[in-house]
Structures are given as C-alpha cells and as structure tokens.
C-alpha cells in the first residue's frame, strides 16, 4: 500500500460486495490529515440480509465434517500468512499503533486460528456412557448464527479469536468490525471467507443502528462482544429479548500490587511492558500500581527514569517506541484525566521524547505520564484510562491493598510482584479477577495454551481461549436410550 492510497471498503454479504452509496472516512490517528479508507455505511436492512445469509448457510455448514472445517481453517490461516506484512501496515495507518504491535496483532490472529484447529478435534467428540439400562450420549452442536462485534484496540487478534472457534464448531458469522479499525480486519476476513461456502462469513459496517440491529436480530443465536462495559450492557439487554447466548469481554482496571520484598529496578522493566503496550490501550493493561508507602518515592523515580526512555512517534517510524492514541474521544479523555490530576495537586510527570515534533498536533499523541500523590478514590485510579498515564498509590498493609485492589466493579486481570512466591500465590487467590499474573503482566507461551481469559464482575461474562473458550460456541445435546425397550 502506498502512503497516498485510500482503501474503499464495501460490506460483504453471501460472498458479494455490497455498497450503500454512503461511506464514512477512516483517518490515520498518527497523521490525522490523511484519509486512509472509505467504508460503506450499512443499515438495519443490510444487517438483516447478512443474518439471513448466515442463517441459510448454517443449514449445510453445520453438517460439514469436523476434519473438513479444520482443513479449511488451516488453509485460510496459511493464506493470511502471505498477507500478514501488508495487513500490519494497513493496521498502523488506520489504528495508529507501532508496526511491531500491529505485526504482533496480525500474528496473534493467525495463531489463534491454528490453535482452535488443534483443540477442536478432541473437544468436539461426543461423550458416551453406558450401563445395564441405558446409553447416554452428550453431543456438542453449533449454536447457529454468531454475531461478532469487535473494538479497535487489537482488532485482528480479537476478531480471529471469535472467527476460529465459531467456524470450527460449525457456526456461521456476521462480523461488525470497529469503525475505528475496519480496513485490515475486513481484508483478512474476505481472504478467509474464500475458503468457506457463501454466507458462512459476512461483514457489515456502520454506526448507530447497525450494532443494535445485529444484537436484536431473532436469528442470531450467539453474540460474542468485545468492547466497553457500557456498550456491553446494551448488548446484554438486546440479547435478552430473544434469550441469546452471550460472551462479553469488557473493560478492565487492572491493579498491579508491588510487595515490600520487590526490588524496584528488577520490577520496573517488566512492569512497563504491562502498562504501555499499544499506548495503554489494552483491556488488560496495568491501570493502577499499588506500592508500599515506604517504597513509593524510590519506585516512582525508578519508573519515571524508565518511562522517560520512550520515543513517541508515528507507528511506521522505526525509531518510535510509543504510538498515538486511536481516536479523538480517547485522546480528549486521556488528556482530560491528566489535566484534572494536575489540578487536584497530584505530582504529574509527562515524560518521553517527542519524535517528529512538527507532526505532533496532526495526530493523537500523548506523552507517557506517571502520577503520584493521588487519592485511592481519584478519578485516574478508579476509571479505565486506556492511555499512557499510570497512577501510583501507596499502601500500608496486605489487607489494605487487597481491599483497594478489589474495590472496583472491574475484574479483568491483575498482577502481584515480589520475591516470596508462596506469599504471591496466597494473595493472588484473594484478588477478584479473571486472571492474575505473578512478576509479569502478560501471558507466557504456557499461559497462552492453558489460561482461559476473561473477566469477573462487570469485566465480562464467559472466557476466550482454550477449550473453555470453544465451549462458548456450542450447545450440549444430551440423548438417552432406554435399552430395555430394544431387547427382543
Ligand atoms: P465500544 O464498546 O465503544 O465499541 C465496541 C464495538 O461495539 C464497536 O464495534 C462499536 O461499533 C460496537 N457498538 C457500539 N454500540 C453498540 C450497540 N449498542 N450494540 C452493538 N454494538 C455496538 O468499545 P471500543 O471500540 O471503544 O473499545 C474499547 C473498549 O473495549 C475498552 O473498554 C476495552 O477495555 C474493551 N476491550 C476489552 C477486551 C477484553 O478482552 N475484555 C479486549 C479489548 C478491548 P459502533 O460504535 O460503530 O456502534
């Protein structure tokens, strides 16, 4: 893709491009004056067409043998490999992240397709039990049309994390990418769709009426939604109208608890990997750091020194280590949080080096910022900031820090940092979260394979990844035979 090229994107229903005559612009968050894409704005009627196509395709797709579904998915993943470099560049231009981050996002998406292909064979087996009187079979059957709704912050990994499990278990899909990052995802989805019959993968775009029309549609049997908690509540209410199954991956306000035996200079390099990826726009980024009161000043200075090394710039600039935010709302919100923290009397350090200063106001650039002298109940501590600003909060005792960490309606991930592993495991079990990391805030390769991911409280319902994630896309059909009636 050249710097000047503008991608024109239609919807994709039943293997056909569907235009609407009305297009919305996608602009580069790092060079806002540049239009990157024009995307067809859909309507409730387009949603209906897409859902009906998916419903019609489901009648035969559900009967396709599992090994063929797996083969098609693996072939689609191999085709995506060939496109991955191009997709990563498109993603930088529409979504704003660093090229190495979008490359990872694309790679994660492809990897997740392969992962479910491997898991599906043993997972989908029918279980059978028998005694003198009866035979019981428990089948796993697909649900039907799945509506997949994704946000902009890691669009490729999150989309493919829905596509793989839905298709391999025999469902069909209507996918609504985010208007803030629809281009690369749609290109990848259309590539994959060629490996499946018409109607198995459908893509719709549009704001306003489109999301609710999809989540309300009576032929949709499952909604897999990733996005903000407020939107998640609207999705849940819409799903209730026709009792749809839902998986909700929502917001988080992840605490990191530094214990008093932790060494700041050891912790900080790993901790910043949990705070600043994608400029803090990660659902399970560290969003507040609790530090023993006696260590606060040392920890603050060590963290500031490390954060000051960031180079803030355009995603395709190889020198950049921190990219702009994705959109105007997010930018205004994060800038507002920083301003209000200053006004409250907190100590606020705006750090890092600005690259390409002449372009600074032509994108949503925010300096990485570390804050202390902030109350545990401050807005910056209680909210999901989704940006490169992190508060440090002092604590006096284990009981107090657990109480502060759990005093939130969020419960996505969390982390504990210290050298006494038994103590860390003991405290982990008392954190109200779907996931807790010890001495990191990211999944290891082993974690990728074995950790179901998701939130408690208002951070979500259900889990993704592993066979627990696959189970979100199936129904159980239990069949019982009375053997006595068959005897001669
Ligand atoms: P939003 O909730 O604003 O949007 C997510 C998607 O939902 C978009 O495609 C949006 O499109 C759509 N949408 C909005 N309103 C409705 C509706 N009433 N019915 C159906 N669909 C609707 O989230 P963001 O895109 O701003 O993403 C950021 C949020 O996502 C953060 O809170 C983050 O924590 C969360 N997230 C959670 C993850 C997790 O695994 N728990 C992972 C990644 C992000 P449109 O606006 O066009 O309608």
Q: What is the strand and helix layout of this fold?
A:
Layout: E1 7-9, E2 11-13, E3 16-18, E4 23-28, E5 31-40, H1 44-61, H2 66-95, H3 99-123, E6 127-130, E7 134-142, E8 145-149, H4 155-168, E9 172-176, H5 183-193, E10 201-203, H6 210-216, E11 220-226, H7 229-240, E12 245-249, E13 254-258, H8 264-275, E14 286-292, H9 296-307, E15 311-312, H10 328-343, E16 347-350, E17 353-354, E18 369-372, H11 379-382, E19 389-395, H12 398-406, E20 415-417, H13 421-428, E21 437-438, H14 445-450, E22 460-461, H15 466-470, E23 474-482
Parallel strand pairs: 1-5, 8-9, 8-11, 9-10, 11-12, 13-14, 13-20, 14-19, 15-17, 18-19, 20-21
Antiparallel strand pairs: 2-3, 4-5, 6-7, 7-23, 12-22, 16-18
Helix pairs in contact: 2-3, 2-5, 3-4, 8-9
Bound molecules: NADPH dihydro-nicotinamide-adenine-dinucleotide phosphate.
Major sheet attributes: 7 strands, mixed
**Overall geometry:** globular
Q: Which small compounds were modeled alongside the protein?
A: NADPH dihydro-nicotinamide-adenine-dinucleotide phosphate
Residues in β-strands, percent:
15-25%
Helix amount, in percent?
A: 25-40%
Number of helices: 15
Mean pLDDT metric: 97
Q: In CATH terms, what is the architecture of the largest domain?
A: 3-Layer(aba) Sandwich
How much is the radius of gyration in Å? 24 Å
How many separate domains? 2
The CATH topology of the largest domain corresponds to Aldehyde Dehydrogenase, Chain A, domain 1
Q: Give start-end ranges of low-pLDDT stretches.
A: none
* SS-based class: alpha/beta
CATH superfamily of the largest domain: Aldehyde Dehydrogenase, Chain A, domain 1
Placed side by side, the strands forming the largest sheet appear as 16-18-19-14-13-20-21
Number of strands: 23
- Distance separating the two termini: 72 Å
């Amino acid at each position: 893709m050249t710097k000047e090229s503008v991608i024109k994107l239609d919807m994709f229903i039943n293997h056909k491009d569907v235009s609407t005559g009305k297009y919305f612009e996608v602009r580069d968050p790092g060079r806002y004056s540049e239009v990157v894409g024009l995307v067809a704005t859909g309507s409730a009627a387009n949603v209906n067409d897409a859902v009906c196509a998916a419903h019609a395709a489901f009648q035969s797709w559900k009967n396709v043998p599992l090994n063929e579904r797996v083969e098609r998915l693996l072939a689609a993943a191999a085709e995506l490999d060939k496109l991955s470099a191009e997709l990563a560049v498109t993603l930088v231009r529409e979504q704003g992240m660093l090229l190495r981050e979008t490359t990872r996002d694309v790679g994660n998406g492809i990897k997740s397709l392969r992962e479910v292909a491997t898991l599906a064979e043993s997972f989908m087996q029918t279980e059978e039990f028998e005694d003198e009187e009866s035979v019981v079979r428990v089948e796993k059957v697909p649900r039907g049309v799945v509506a997949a709704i994704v946000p902009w912050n890691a669009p490729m990994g999150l989309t493919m994390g829905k596509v793989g499990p839905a298709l391999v278990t025999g469902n069909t899909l209507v996918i609504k990418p985010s208007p803030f990052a629809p281009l690369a995802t749609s290109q990848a989805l259309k590539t994959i769709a060629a490996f499946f019959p018409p109607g198995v993968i459908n893509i719709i775009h549009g704001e306003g009426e489109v999301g609710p029309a999809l989540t309300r549609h009576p032929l949709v049997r499952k909604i897999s939604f990733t996005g903000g908690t407020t939107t998640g509540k609207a999705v849940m209410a819409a799903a209730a109208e026709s009792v749809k199954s839902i998986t909700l991956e929502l917001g988080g306000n992840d605490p990191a608890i530094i214990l008093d035996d932790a060494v700041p200079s050891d912790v900080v390099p790993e901790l910043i990997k949990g705070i600043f990826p994608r400029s803090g726009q990660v659902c399970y980024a560290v969003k507040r750091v609790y530090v023993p009161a006696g260590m606060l000043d040392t920890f603050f200075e060590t963290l500031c020194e490390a954060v000051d090394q960031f180079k803030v710039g355009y995603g395709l600039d190889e020198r950049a280590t921190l990219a702009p935010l994705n959109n105007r709302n997010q930018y205004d919100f994060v800038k507002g949080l920083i301003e209000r923290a200053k006004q409250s009397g907190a100590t606020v350090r705006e750090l890092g080096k600005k690259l390409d200063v002449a372009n600074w106001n032509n994108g949503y650039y925010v300096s990485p910022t570390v804050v202390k002298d902030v109350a545990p109940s401050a807005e910056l501590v209680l909210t999901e900031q989704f940006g490169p600003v992190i508060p440090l909060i002092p604590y006096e005792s284990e009981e107090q820090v657990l109480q502060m960490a759990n005093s939130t309606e969020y419960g996505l991930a969390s982390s504990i940092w210290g050298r006494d592993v038994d103590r860390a495991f003991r405290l982990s079990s008392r954190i109200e979260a779907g996931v807790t990391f010890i001495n990191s805030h990211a999944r290891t390769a082993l974690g990728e394979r074995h950790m179901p991911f998701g939130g408690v409280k208002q951070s979500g319902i259900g889990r993704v990844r592993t066979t627990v994630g696959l189970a979100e896309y199936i129904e159980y059909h239990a069949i019982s035979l009375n053997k006595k009636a068959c005897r001669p």
